Amino acid sequence: MPADIPILTLITFSPLLGILVLLLLPKQQVRSLKATAIVATLIPLLLSLWLFANFENHGNGAAYAEQATWVEAPLNKEMLRGVTTYMFKFQYHMGIDGISLPLVLLTTIVASMAALASVHIKKRWKAFYLWFLLLEIGMLGIFMARDVFLFFVFFELTLIPMFFLIGIWGGGNREKAATRFLLYNGIGSAIMLAAFVMLVSTAGFNMESPDPQNVHYIYSGSYETLQANLTNPESYVNLSPEQMPGNPFYMSETMKWSIFIMLLIAFGIKLPFFPFHTWMLRVHVEAPPSIVMLHSGVLLKMGAYGLIRFGLLLFPAQAKEWALVLALLGVINLLYGAVLAFVQTELKLVLAYSSISHMGIVLLGIASLNEIGLQGAIVQLVSHGLISALLFLIVGSLQERTGTTMLADLGGLARSLPFMSGIFLTAGLASLGLPGLSGFVGEFLALLGLFDSMRIITAIAVLGVILTAVYMLRSILSITFGAMPERFAALRDVRLIEALPMIALLAFIILLGVYPSILLEPMKISLNAALAQLSMKVGG
Q1: How far, in Å, CA of 40 to CA of 59, rounded?
Q2: What is the band of 84 on the pLDDT scale with cuts at 50, 70, 90?
Q3: Burial (Cβ within 10 Å: 0-12, 13-18, ≥19) of residue 23
Q4: What is the pLDDT of residue 218?
Q5: Based on the number of CB atoms within 10 Å of its own CB, is 331 exposed (0-12), middle (13-18) or buried (19 or more)?
Q6: Are 61 and 224 in contact (CB under 8 A)?
Q7: What tens digit of pLDDT does each residue of 314-361 get?
Q8: How much is the average pLDDT of 45-50?
Q9: Chain centroid to CA 210: how far?
Q10: Cβ(221)–Cβ(147) under 8 Å?
Q11: pLDDT tens digits for 190-244?
């Protein structure tokens, strides 16, 4: 593909083609609507696969970048010695590196598989797929935005489609689940926006002097500008009024801590970590299975990505001081989610609490503050995204056939649904961290990275991994083996349109399990460069 082709923009906005075609199709042409939506998700998947195969990372910063002025608002103020020009300049700035690349690929894979799984939707197909494709645009944009306000726009773009997808096509308590989703995530967005405004008003500037009599201060939401100013000890941001009298851009330690904590809360709600997790449980139970595939597989990962990108890499000193706090939050999530998953009697709730538990491992990897641990955290994000998407795909197929997801009402399904049961068992083994499957790689690297600095917490975290095996095997074996109710004897095994996404997701899970270097190599270069710049590198 030619170098001047805006590949990142094409990946992000290619679902718009599907939206345009859907708008022209009559709502009665259900097959055409479904086919259009599925094809529209395959376009960004193919483009992201090409990008992944041809990805070359040369160090710190975005390996691929696209940039254009988005908003520009000048404000002039006359000064005694000349003119000082203040200009607010926000840009359409897209970029991708070894940290965001795996998550972009995850998004396109899960979105395509969820589109195939949406055959279970029974009403208003046209509106459903319109919101679905709009949601995919928002998710892709989040992982590639390199301007904080563009990031915020894409972040908000995911909220409205999810609200309607839950509220219209969800279960019996769908309105409450949608409202709680919007309330919690809206609060998180407000906190995040306040933190971004504080960031840009101090660290988001560049100073230009065309001549001695004129000084231009250009405020920018560029991530590169923020990172350069915050991490450079000699930048204006880090020069106190004693060092530079009258410095209007000085960011005190109090302000840095305030912004870091605000970002931690904002992205912690999205992750989510305890005690901001209750909204997520309702979504997992009430939303349609194909939408839960996106929510658990991708949307939860936005919180961890934001925490790494804006929390750790912009505020490394604060992250170092709070590494123990992050580790404690991680181990609480891990154990809390595992214990409550064990006592659940409904399969969706088992998997919901399992997601909370697995996000705890991500927090532990981030808390390690080293290359191995951060690699483990990102691999865990990708791995859990694939596994949870596969598990909820199976849940949707089970619910369609049996009409229930209560563990007590299911049993012996391996006889009537052998293919589905085999996939279910393999996905469960991946979730509990069986070597050779993707779940093992992320967990092992995250805990290995943490072991170097926090051995006691690492030992406690291993208990959570053991509990994961207990609750996953308990749930899967109770569903697939044992006595089978007579009404389930004539159940039909998976259809082709269900088998295809199951096989595809399982193939990626196995590939990542046996060949993790496919993700680790491009990721390692970006992490090494970032950690070296922040004086945090511990070795390659």
Answers
A1: 33
A2: low
A3: exposed
A4: 73
A5: buried
A6: yes
A7: 998 899 999 999 999 999 999 999 999 999 999 999 999 999 999 999
A8: 96
A9: 42
A10: yes
A11: 999 999 999 988 888 776 655 545 556 677 788 988 888 888 777 777 777 777 7
Question: Which DSSP state fits 88?
Answer: E
Q: Which is higher by pLDDT, 229 or 294?
A: 294
Q: Residue 272 above 50 pLDDT?
A: yes
Q: Give the closest residue to 177 by CA, choosing from 192, 188, 162.
A: 162
- DSSP code per residue over 147-175: BHHHHHHHHHHHHHHHHHHHHHHS-TTHH
What are the pLDDT digits (tens) for 148-176? 999 999 999 999 999 999 999 998 899 99
Continuous H helices in 253-346: 253-270, 278-286, 289-294, 300-306, 316-321, 323-343
CB 390 within 8 A of CB 502: yes
Look up residue 336 and give its amino acid.
Y
Residue 3 burial by Cβ neighbours in a 10 Å radius (0-12, 13-18, 19+):
exposed
- Cβ contacts of 346-350, under 8 Å, gap ≥ 24: 346/285, 346/405, 346/406, 346/407, 347/395, 347/398, 347/405, 347/406, 347/407, 347/410, 347/475, 347/479, 348/284, 348/285, 348/292, 348/395, 348/405, 349/281, 349/284, 349/285, 350/407, 350/471, 350/475
The letter for the amino acid at 395 is: V
Amino acid symbol at 392: F
Paired strand residues for 94:
66, 145
Give me the sign of the Cα torsion angle 78, 80, 83, 88: negative
Position 108, amino acid: T
Reading the block at residue 87, the tokens are 């200009």
As beta bridge partners, residue 279 has none
Residue with tokens 């390690």: 368
Residue with tokens 């808390």: 367
Place of tokens 């904002």: 266
Cα 174–chain centre separation: 23
Mean model confidence pLDDT for the chain: 89
Could you count the other beta carbons within 10 Å of the beta carbon of residue 488? 17
Rounded to whole angstroms, what are the CA distances from 177 to 279, 287, 301, 358? 7, 8, 20, 22
**Residue 161: partners with Cβ closer than 8 Å, 6 or more residues away:** 131, 132, 134, 135, 138
Q: 160-189: string of b/e by CB count within 10 Å (b at 16+)?
A: ebbbbbbbbbbeeebeebbebbbebbeebb
pLDDT at 38: 95
pLDDT tens column, 87-129:
677 789 999 999 999 999 999 999 999 999 997 788 899 999 9
Q: What single DSSP character describes residue 487?
A: G
CB under 8 A, 24+ apart: contacts of 527-533: 527/98, 527/99, 527/371, 527/374, 527/375, 528/371, 529/59, 529/60, 529/61, 530/60, 530/99, 530/313, 531/370, 531/371, 531/374, 532/60, 533/60, 533/231
